[in-house]
Amino acid sequence: MLSRTNRLLDVLEIALQQEGIPYFRDSDDDFWSLKEPRALLTMLTGIMEGGKALALPVGNGRGRNLLGQTALERRLAHSRTQLLAGCRAGLYLCGWKASVTEGLLKQLEPLPLSEWKAFVEGWIKETGREDVKKKTRKLSSGVHFLEYLPGWCTVSLQDPVLLIEGLRRWNAGLLPSVSETCAIALGSIARLRGTLSQRLQFIDRLAQKKQESAPVLGPETVYLTTMHGSKGLEWEKVWILGVEDGVVPHLDGELEEERRLFYVAMTRARRRLVLSAVREGNPSPFLAECGIEAE
Q1: CA–CA distance, 18 with 9 (Å, rounded to integer)
Q2: Do 123 and 181 lie in a common domain?
Q3: 199 in a domain, yes or no?
Q4: Using CB atoms within 10 A of its CB, is residue 146 exposed (0-12), middle (13-18) or buried (19+)?
């Protein structure tokens, strides 16, 4: 399976992983090892741990005594550490500078999670960022993240579907370069079943399995690579994805080079060639040049 960009292969790789279909990707990086998906997983872990912290018994009630004071405090400290790591990851996705993030989290850390929203609103006013919030996507998405966080933590243990829908709406406000990758990751997590913890564990097992086992290229293995990566290789059957205008030819490429690259991809098939495109887009103009009509 060939595509013009790695982004399309990311979607395919996730689908093959979840279906348990053997595949080999001609790339050093697994999708979940990329910066944005990795940060998103850290953020989700933090949200889940924040939910656990909120669910812990408080005061000197019976539930607390059953756990024991020390054990309870250790569990709470662990959850808060994970929550703060999730906050760093979330604000990283928003494009915040590490120095700003650390300065704010240092003030938020001793406060109960329920008080974070009010504190952030006051912090915006005190630092003169109120007008900037309305104009800057980075700041507004980060502030929204911190405002929504307590609610996300609350629903994380009860309704992962509702949580993911909320995260999708927040993700739409991120910079496009980040939002697109995170949308793929959230879509993948949404298609899984089980609790949030079970979904994150499933993804973690996939990553570990890929690191531990050497790829085996059997007759049923799906080979994933870009058009560039296909040079010099041949297969019995080839499926080229994303054969639509704006992708093939790519908007950032020179037309003649894009035409040559598409020819290279098409000639990788010995016996059968399949070309596909999304219904919503316009077919690649290269198809007409080849005398191929889109169905």
Answers
A1: 14
A2: yes
A3: no
A4: buried
